[in-house]
Amino acid sequence: xxxxxxxxxxxxxxxxxxxxxxxxxxxxxxxxxxxxxxxxxxxxxxxxxxxxxxxxxxxxxxxxxxxxxxxxxxxxxxxxxxxxxxxxxxxxxxxxxxxxxxxxxxxxxxxxxxxxxxxxxxxxxxxxxxxxxxxxxxxxxxxxxxxxxxxxxxxxxxxxxxxxxxxxxxxxxxxxxxxxxxxxxxxxxxxxxxxxxxxxxxxxxxxxxxxxxxxxxxxxxxxxxxxxxxxxxxxxxxxxxxxxxxxxxxxxxxxxxxxxxxxxxxxxxxxxxxxxxxxxxxxxxxxxxxxxxxxxxxxxxxxxxxxxxxxxxxxxxxxxxxxxxxxxxxxxxxxxxxxxxxxxxxxxxxxxxxxxxxxxxxxxxxxxxxxxxxxxxxxxxxxxxxxxxxxxxxxxxxxxxxxxxxxxxxxxxxxxxxxxxxxxxxxxxxxxxxxxxxxxxxxxxxxxxx
Length: 450
Hints:
alpha/beta, four-stranded parallel β-sheet, disordered N terminus
């Protein structure tokens, strides 16, 4: 059963008349109303919906039945009828009862923020692992919802069905079948995670440092990835342009090879189902030697976006001591740099002010992945970061350790001290701390005091 191939002619998704409601609950400081609306519109556009109107309003006391008050419901009903709305998006989390009640009142399909994000992920997943992860997250979300969104007999549209579609004749509350499917997906993901773990161990045994790009969705990570690698993978001005992680080799000054990893973008209130399902993928960040946090510094909510990213990283197991301190892993120190991207969109005064701020913090850089501004300097700084804390150790290489000696020449500084009559080479080796760990993993029969 395929649930990923959405037909281009599916009128229930592409071009569907959409009405967006952005209820702002008491104490919700996530973003300003204008920012909330723009992000909600961006999420809707990501799956080709035609936005007819978008309204934000405050909700002092959430209604247990509909989340929003009766007056807002009435106003929405009038707008829906007047504009022949097909889909209503509520930019907040709805309970199953609230979603059902709103659908009954609006006489149209209703999806909340979680369902919308899951729908986007369902469209964008490209790898087998990504598809398994998104489907598991979808089913977890759907398990308690009696909405027209999951069937095992007839499906005539793609995505994950939050937007409905023809042919859905099986009752969606068939929880037994959902649980069985979830159990199967978890078994398949366990195998995938086992394979990913083996791949990670192989990379750790390899001599190459790993750099992970993280950031809010549409911050410019993929554009930076393309700039640094010379590749031409999808990078677009849209939310969640990248879903499946990408890796590539790059060369830096003084380092023959570095692995650069581009991860899925984060977003405020990222569904917990997705964090859980994508944990194996996101945990690649925990094994990086350097984390580059790419921020859209031109965005009016850039600081809140930073907080959202750090919140997700915390859920993955990274300890964040404070807003201006490095992120520290539970297992090892992982240095992090903030890249203030899209400086080309700033006016001269704002750019000058930020340039002054950046000059006072060695862990922040002002760049434009789009036009290349600051990229050459960034490359040099990254290289310096990876080479920081280099240590010198004296090692005796036996004749059978020629590969280890050659590796040392390629990745560090080598000073040969002596060669004895048996062919043993004594040398002083200077390597970054991260590479000493990889040396020990790769050449386990050579004693190294880490």
